[in-house]
Amino acid sequence: MFSLKTGMPKGPFKKSKLSFTWLLSLVILTAACTVPGDEPLNFSPLVLDDWEVSTPQAEGLNPDLVRSAYQKASNLSSIYSLLIIKNGRLVAEKYFNGQSYGIANPTASVTKSIISSLAGIALRERILSGLDQTITGFFPEIDWQRLDPRKSQITIRQILQMRSGFPWEEFSGHLDLLFSRSNWIPLIEEIPLSGDPGSQFGYSNFTAHLMAIILARAANTDLRSFAQAYLFGPLDADIGYWPRDASGYCFGSGELSLTPRVMAKFGLLYLNAGELNGSQIIPSEWVSESLTPSSFDVYGTVIRTPPYGKILSSFDVLDYGYLWWSSKSGNHRLNYAWGHGGQLIVLVPDLDMIVVTSADNLFGQFGEASWPKEKAVMELVGEFISAID
Predict the structure, then answer these.
(1) Which one of 1, 136, 155, 248 has the lowest number of neighbouring Cβ atoms within 10 Å?
(2) How many Cα atoms sit within 13 Å of 15 on the Cβ side?
(3) Residue 312 sits in a domain of what CATH number?
(4) What is the rounded radius of gyration, in angstroms, for the C-alpha atoms of the chain?
């Protein structure tokens, strides 16, 4: 149930003054957060005007599990924030390593899930005619006739599924090529396909950015303006810095900056089937379709070598929908937006819960230089969720 303080409130949300009972429970929770021999660990949420706040215990969460998660987070050198939302209310929030609630940091590939939501909105607004239209019409500067004919068959659906046939750059060696170029459109011609469109999963920053360009060109507007008007504006939220390529297109592959509270709002929108206070911001059918996996166990046959090994012990096999990940922790099915370094918006539908983390995005670092830190943030979240009955 939505509890964002925007528009007319729905459900239990009220804009009245804090009650004595609520204040008393907050005092009790804060007192309970003292770890023997340490300074008090306060994860009580800030009382601002964008979220209704509560306590873990009041919303049915074990305070000891929550406290343990925050204690582990306080020992991580790269984590910036940890937020927990239960039953539509912000129940725990803390910032680390010099961060605070108002700082918008790059969300890395969480941006891809934002792009997915904008694709759903574009379909509703008839800006896109359908998912099975090919991408050729959006790139008239490309001479498609002289390319591998399979490239002309790539559809919007396949790009959203990461099944376009373009290679998984981290393992194909094309990641350095992307970072060395400021204009990625010519790479449509230069990067060879690794398989037939639709035949296999291949995680691609390149095609995620093509999706952003497609949306901007289809809407005939700047993607940042489109996102603010149709998504973040209705959420009563603002976009932070969004870097652009040499042609002025906002990168769809990553690095949109958002505050953790705005990340949580976006997560709550998906947990509530795209609705906010009676307004359907994202079509409910799109939310369901985009969170439904179309590729399964995508890392299973790829990462079996150091420094990875089994990629995550607290996340089961990793599946993929339309620019959204899916997995399982313990008995709980998850959908999540996942960005490099440990940027996470994790939806736990059966618990009516969201967990958000932000972290150093470790830009330009990969493998042994970044994965141990990123994994530590993800395991923190997965272990917390899997411990809940």
Answers:
(1) 248
(2) 9
(3) 3.40.710
(4) 21
Euclidean distance between CA atoms 207 and 209, whole angstroms:
5
Query: Considering 255, 283, 317, which residue would you say is the last residue of a domain?
Result: 255
Q: Identify the pLDDT of residue 253.
A: 97
Please indicate, yes or no, whether residues 13 and 136 belong to a single structural domain of this protein. no
Q: Letter for the amino acid at 334?
A: L
Structure tokens at 186: 């010519």
pTM of the model: 0.88
Closest by CA position to 36, among listed 4, 3, 67, 79: 67
Domain finish residue from 255, 275, 299: 255
User: What's the structural domain count of the chain?
Assistant: 2
**Distance, CA of 318 to CA of 328 (rounded, Å):** 8
- What is the distance of C-alpha 193 from the center of its chain? 27
Here the tokens at position 315 are 């996340």
Task: Indicate if 25 and 116 belong to the same structural domain.
Answer: no
Helices (H) and strands (E) in the chain, counts: 12, 11
Residue-wise pLDDT for 86-118, tens only, equals 999 999 999 999 999 999 999 999 999 999 999
Q: DSSP assignment of 290-301, as one string?
A: HHS-SB-STTTT
Q: Is the peptide bond before 307 cis (omega within 30 degrees of 0)?
A: yes
Boundaries of domain holding 329: 1-102+259-389
Coil/strand/helix, residue 82 = strand
Element (H, E) at 112: helix 110-124
H/E element holding 338?
strand 332-339
* Structural element, H or E, at residue 376: helix 371-386
Instruction: Name the one residue in this structure whose structure tokens are 């590939």.
Output: 109
Judgement on whether residues 270 and 386 belong to the same structural domain of the protein: yes
> Quick one: DSSP state of residue 229?
I
DSSP 59-80: GT--HHHHHHHHHHHTT-SSEE
**What's the distance, CA 12 to chain centroid?**
27
CATH number at residue 215: 3.40.710.10
Which of 2-11, 62-71, 292-301, 306-315 has the highest average model confidence (pLDDT)? 62-71
Alpha-carbon distance 196 to 166, whole Å? 9
pLDDT in tens, 265-276: 999 999 999 998
